[in-house]
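Dear Dr. H.,

I hope your travels went smoothly. While you were away I took the liberty of generating a structure for the chain from your last submission, since the lab meeting agenda had it listed for discussion. I wanted you to have the full record in hand beforehand rather than looking at slides cold. The sequence, exactly as received, is reproduced here:
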Amino acid sequence: MYFDEIQLLRWMKGDKLAVEYIEMICDVAHKWDDLIDKDKVLSDDEINKLFFDVLIKLPRNTFYRKNFEHLNSVLMNAISNWQIATQMEREGGDYEKSIAFILRSSYVDLITQAALLCGGNQWASKVGAEARSITHSETYEGYLKNLDLEKKSRTSQK
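The corresponding predicted structure, in token form, is as follows:
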């Protein structure tokens, strides 16, 4: 889990299905990133769970189904932003990497939007600020170090 479950329950105003949705989306996003960056080896069990979650559990999650029109558009945008960030990291210079640092974590918008659905706009703004602080706690310098390690990992596998 990427966020503390107690924190997620607070952010989602006690909606356990919203928390399940967020946990699943964060797990999928991070594992997808691992597969593309090739910096972490996923076991067969992890890959099987990933695809089961995406193909079976996610479409059956009541919170996601109820709010599909809203959340699916945010999800599409998060995926596009992550792909753009990955390209900017690999092909760009310092400026592009500074943009990619924030852009790559657009999945956090799903937390903000789920919080909006659970508690309204003001609540979403509060949750969004907290979630972004947690997400970017690695700092920009830490991000650059990890990016360098990912690049070395990818090039050593060729």
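Two observations you may find useful: The chain is about 80% helix and 0% strand. The CA atoms of residues 22 and 119 lie 15 Å apart.

With kind regards,
E. W.
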